[in-house]
Design goal:
- The complex is a heterodimer of chains A (about 130) and B (about 375).
- Chain A has one domain: OB fold (Dihydrolipoamide Acetyltransferase, E2P), CATH 2.40.50.
- Helices cover about 20% and strands about 35% of the residues of chain A.
- In chain A, strand 2 and strand 3 form a beta hairpin.
- The mean pLDDT of chain A is about 95.
- The radius of gyration of chain A is 14 Å and the shape is globular.
- Chain A has 4 helices and 9 strands, in the order E-E-E-H-E-E-E-E-E-H-H-E-H.
- Chain A is of the alpha+beta class and about 130 residues long.
- In chain B, the strands form 5 sheets. Chain B has a 6-stranded mixed β-sheet with strand order 10-11-12-9-3-13.
- In chain B, a hairpin with a 2-residue loop joins strand 18 and strand 19.
- Chain B starts with 7 loop residues before the first helix and ends in a 5-residue tail after the last strand.
- With about 375 residues, chain B is an alpha+beta fold.
- Helices cover about 25% and strands about 30% of the residues of chain B.
- In chain B, helix 2 packs across helix 8.
- The chains are: A alpha+beta (about 130), B alpha+beta (about 375).
- At the A-B interface, strand 4 of A face helix 8 of B.
Chain lengths: ~130, ~375
């Protein structure tokens, strides 16, 4: 399992990940565990550009054949990019959750709150099994 | 820990995602639900539906009992092996369950009812069978495999001896034949051709593996739901229940009012409902925008003013892998025209009323604009 959890990301307990970009912005997505639990994704709704998000705010919806699920922003900030590919090919979230399946990029408002390191997220998954 | 079918260990070793369904631990999917769906539409899939409850009724007055107990009329079953879909109603017209009844001999009929309603069904049937002297026997010794898809019959026939094969391939639609210890029925819940095989639970694992070796792809409850919804088939508990009668659930075709003297349970209530008219009816919906339809979403007229009463709600919704669109069954009051809007997370989405089924025998029956 450990090789499936990228070591360069931080994680939330609601199964989102963030990637720190060189320009200080962050990229947000959902984890491999989350996509696997949801099953085949058929619809993704990402937030509007410029939308201001608070930590823990429901900001995106991912729907699989069987259910809809909210995505919560792990950070506070403003949406500066959204993955437009997902509207036509939501299955990118299944096939490449840490890469082509990214959801949005956020310009931080303040600092990144305390999130889980890869080893902590892995432990969290183990405990919640 | 739920109940387990004889195939449970095979599902687990195939890495199925297991979920609770009516008290049973059942496979939701073995990987990709959408690929399982396409396998059934294009070739053949195999489902474990052993959680469904098989009930044998025997006695000279069995037909008489069923003509009283069921809203559809077993008078139509004239040739042994023939099957009939019916609702079993409360005196209010509410649906206790939907089921398939097989006519085997004049003193032996078989019912297959839903897993989630097993107990209340058995109680109800036993209560009404007693005055007719009909014996009610639950066949928990049997497993049921559903092999569905354009290649399903041929893959099943490959397991049989030449003589059995002839019998199997001669079975007409909505009929069954006994083959050795199996009852093979040409029925299903997918909108495709295929068989539902009732067989001793002790034979189930070996037969499952043989069918998989023939190329039938294991498919779970997830694919079963998208397939049945594309086929426009109701799911008990979603599309009808004890608070709704068949006429407002798209099941008027299963209620046989003729002859007028047949006194089936629920008849009076349905006659009244039919006479008063103007009530709810079941329709199909296709979402014209991106998104997914789900049960309980509220449906309004396309031009409804704010605060106007809605037309009704979605009873079953999903994303259709065949149409690549969201589809639904909905219970609505009569509306002019075919344009409606569906509230999805507080936002109106345009949808169109269509006549189910959406897909039959691998082909879309709906124009997608």
């Amino acid at each position: 399992m450990s090789e499936q959890i990228p070591q360069d990301l931080q994680y939330s307990k609601s199964h989102e990940w963030i990637r720190a970009l060189p320009n200080g912005q962050v990229e947000v997505g959902i984890t491999d565990h989350a996509q696997s639990a949801l099953g085949d994704l058929v619809f993704v709704e990402v937030p509007q550009l410029d939308r201001k998000l608070a930590v823990g705010e429901a900001c995106a919806v991912v729907e699989s054949v069987k259910a809809a699920s909210d995505v919560y922003s792990p950070v506070a900030g403003r949406v500066i990019a959204r993955n437009e590919e997902l509207s036509q090919t939501p299955e990118l979230l299944n096939s490449d959750p840490y890469g082509a399946g990214w959801l949005m990029r956020i310009e931080l408002d303040g600092k990144v709150p305390a999130l889980l390191a890869p080893s902590e997220y892995q432990q969290f998954l183990k405990e919640s099994e | 820990m739920g109940l387990k079918t004889p195939l449970y260990n095979l599902h687990v070793s195939a890495h199925a995602k297991i979920v609770d369904f009516g008290g049973w631990d059942m496979p939701l999917s073995y990987g990709s639900q959408i690929e399982e769906h396409h396998a059934v539409r294009r070739d053949a899939g195999i489902f474990d539906v052993s959680h469904m409850c098989v009930i044998d009724l025997s006695g000279e007055r069995t037909r008489e009992l069923l003509r009283h107990l069921l809203a559809n009329d077993v008078r139509r079953l004239t040739v042994p092996g023939r099957a009939l879909y019916s609702c079993m109603l409360l005196p209010t017209g509410g649906v206790i369950d939907d089921l398939i009844v097989y006519f085997l001999t004049e003193s032996w009929f078989r019912l297959v009812v839903n897993a989630g309603t097993r107990e209340k069904d058995l109680d109800w049937i036993r209560e009404h069978a007693e005055p007719f002297g009909v014996a009610v026997r639950e066949r928990s010794d049997l497993a049921i495999l559903a092999v569905q898809g354009p290649a399903a019959r041929e893959k099943t026939a490959a397991l049989l001896t030449p003589t059995q094969r002839t019998v199997a391939l001669d079975i007409q639609r909505f009929s069954a034949a006994a083959i050795d210890s199996w009852l093979v029925a040409r029925t299903g819940y997918t909108g495709e051709d295929g068989f539902e095989i009732m067989l001793p639970g002790t034979d189930a694992a070996e037969t499952w593996c043989a069918l998989v070796a023939q190329g039938a792809r294991p498919a779970g409850l997830g694919a079963r739901d998208t397939l049945r919804l594309e086929a426009g088939m109701n799911l008990y508990g979603n599309d009808m229940d004890e608070t709704r009668h068949p006429l407002e659930s798209g099941l008027a075709w299963t209620v046989d009012f003729d002859p007028a003297e047949r006194d089936f349970i629920g008849r009076e209530a349905l006659v009244r409902a039919r006479a008063s008219g103007g009530g709810y009816r079941q329709v199909g919906l296709v979402l014209e925008e991106r998104g997914v339809l789900r049960s309980h979403q509220v449906v309004s007229a396309a031009d409804a003013a704010d605060g106007a009463a809605p037309l009704g709600e979605v009873t079953s919704g999903t994303f259709s892998p065949t149409l690549n669109r969201a589809i639904a069954l909905a219970r609505l009051k009569p509306a002019p025209g075919s344009r409606v809007r569906v509230d999805i997370r507080g936002k109106p989405h345009a949808a169109r009323i269509v006549k189910p089924p959406f897909v039959r025998n691998g082909k879309s029956l709906i124009d997608i604009q």
